[in-house]
């Protein structure tokens, strides 16, 4: 009897779960498609809070300049709207942040508080460390909504200040996932990708529009060129000998040694080659976990020796222990006078498809 009752309960739960899935799927299909441009966030909060310390903290977090491109471009463009005006086309935007001071009695905060259930309000009251909650497809398909909240303005400001990188990375990851779907939900350059795997023993998903510009035994340069935007990716490897190879000086030397014979080289001018700009700009080095492997990420600016050419670059260096190879992969951009933030995010997304052949993703 007990087993029978358990089976009925289990089957009922499965049935209800299936119904919920079907209901969710129907709701998703009926939603309008989210609109908006890359790197744009719509912020909905009380006007006094926007003009005060909370708004200043939000602007400092998401509006700081990208440090690794020559032009001053913010990490995200912020568009402010009051809770009263949040309707119509605003609900279809791709990125939305709601900011609520739960204990404030202003009209704006009372409107925003209506999004919370009594249970969630009790949880927040009992645990002041709770300050953010994200939800996808709230009002439109492909939408990311982030709720930021606190019982008082001071509590919320403290949580925002202590989690700046977490908040920034949240939307950077959302943008990266959108770029990935845009590139790889359709056909990509599988022929070039297969060639890279066969030649260099590694994998990279190459989007449509890239071609092989030049290659050698241990080197491939991919290029997507237009009159205004010149995007490049190159992959190479050398024998791994010691941890010292991951130091900043060693990686910058390796970068020059790899690229000098091939990239933007002019036979009539042997001194034309790719350099790293270190006199006027910093190179940012960070040790990261790259799909379970130790890697070093570099971000900085490149320039062409003896010529007025340059732009931003990003690179990763990592070791394949099975072959004792140190792989160096880089993407760099030449688009003088043009916005570069979003293109560099695209190139970074492409580099992150890299993996050693045969290794799980």
Q: Brief overview, please?
A:
The protein has 361 residues and is an alpha+beta fold. The protein contains 10 helices and 15 strands. The protein has helices spanning 2-30, 47-51, 53-63, 107-113, 118-126, 153-162, 164-184, 190-200, 248-259, 341-351, and strands at residues 40-45, 77-81, 95-101, 132-136, 144-150, 202-203, 211-216, 219-225, 230-239, 274-276, 284-290, 293-304, 310-320, 325-334, 355-356.
Explain this structure:
The chain is of the alpha+beta class and about 350 residues long. The protein has helices spanning about 1-30, 45-50, 55-65, 105-115, 120-125, 155-160, 165-185, 190-200, 250-260, 340-350; strands spanning about 40-45, 75-80, 95-100, 130-135, 145-150, 200-205, 210-215, 220-225, 230-240, 275, 285-290, 295-305, 310-320, 325-335, 355. The strands form three sheets. Strands 7, 8, 9, 10, 11, 12, 13 and 14 form an eight-stranded antiparallel β-sheet that branches. A hairpin with a 2-residue loop joins strand 7 (about 210-215) and strand 8 (about 220-225). Helix 3 (about 55-65) packs parallel to helix 6. It is elongated and about 70 Å long. About 30% of the residues are buried.
Key descriptive features of the protein:
single chain, 361 residues, alpha+beta, eight-stranded antiparallel beta sheet, 10 helices, 28% strand, elongated, disordered N terminus
What's the SSE blueprint?
Elements: H1 2-30, E1 40-45, H2 47-51, H3 53-63, E2 77-81, E3 95-101, H4 107-113, H5 118-126, E4 132-136, E5 144-150, H6 153-162, H7 164-184, H8 190-200, E6 202-203, E7 211-216, E8 219-225, E9 230-239, H9 248-259, E10 274-276, E11 284-290, E12 293-304, E13 310-320, E14 325-334, H10 341-351, E15 355-356
Parallel strand pairs: 1-2, 1-3, 3-5
Antiparallel strand pairs: 4-5, 6-15, 7-8, 8-9, 9-14, 10-12, 11-12, 12-13, 13-14
């Amino acid at each position: 009897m007990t087993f029978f009752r358990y089976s009925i309960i289990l089957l009922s739960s499965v049935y209800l779960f299936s119904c919920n899935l079907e209901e969710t799927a129907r709701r998703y299909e009926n939603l309008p498609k989210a609109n908006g441009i890359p790197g744009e966030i719509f912020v909905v909060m009380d006007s006094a809070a926007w003009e005060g310390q909370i708004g200043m903290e939000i602007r400092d977090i998401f509006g700081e300049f990208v440090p690794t491109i020559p032009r001053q471009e913010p990490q995200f463009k912020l568009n402010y709207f009051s809770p009263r005006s949040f309707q119509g086309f605003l609900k279809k935007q791709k990125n939305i942040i709601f900011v609520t001071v739960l204990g404030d009695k202003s009209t704006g905060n009372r409107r925003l508080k209506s999004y919370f259930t009594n249970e969630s309000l009790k949880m927040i009251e009992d645990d002041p460390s709770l300050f953010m909650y994200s939800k996808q497809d709230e009002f439109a398909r492909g939408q990311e909504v982030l709720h930021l909240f606190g019982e008082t303005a001071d509590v919320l400001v403290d949580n925002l200040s202590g989690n700046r990188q977490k908040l920034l990375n949240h939307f950077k990851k959302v943008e990266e996932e959108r770029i990935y779907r845009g590139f790889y939900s359709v056909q990509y350059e599988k022929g070039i990708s297969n060639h890279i795997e066969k030649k260099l023993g590694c994998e990279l998903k190459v989007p449509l529009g890239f071609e092989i510009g030049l290659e050698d035994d241990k080197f491939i340069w991919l290029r997507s060129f237009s009159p205004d935007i010149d995007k490049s990716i190159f992959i190479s490897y050398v024998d791994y000998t010691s941890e010292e190879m991951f130091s900043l000086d060693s990686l910058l030397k390796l970068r020059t040694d790899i690229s000098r014979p091939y990239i933007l080289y002019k036979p009539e001018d042997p001194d034309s080659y790719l350099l790293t700009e270190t006199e006027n700009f910093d190179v940012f080095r960070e040790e990261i976990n790259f799909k379970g492997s130790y890697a070093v990420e570099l971000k900085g600016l490149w320039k062409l020796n003896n010529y007025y050419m340059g732009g931003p670059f990003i690179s990763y260096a990592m070791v394949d222990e099975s072959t004792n190879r140190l792989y160096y992969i880089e993407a760099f951009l030449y688009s003088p006078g043009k916005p570069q933030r979003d293109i560099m995010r695209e190139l970074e997304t492409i580099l992150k498809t890299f993996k050693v052949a045969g290794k799980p993703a």
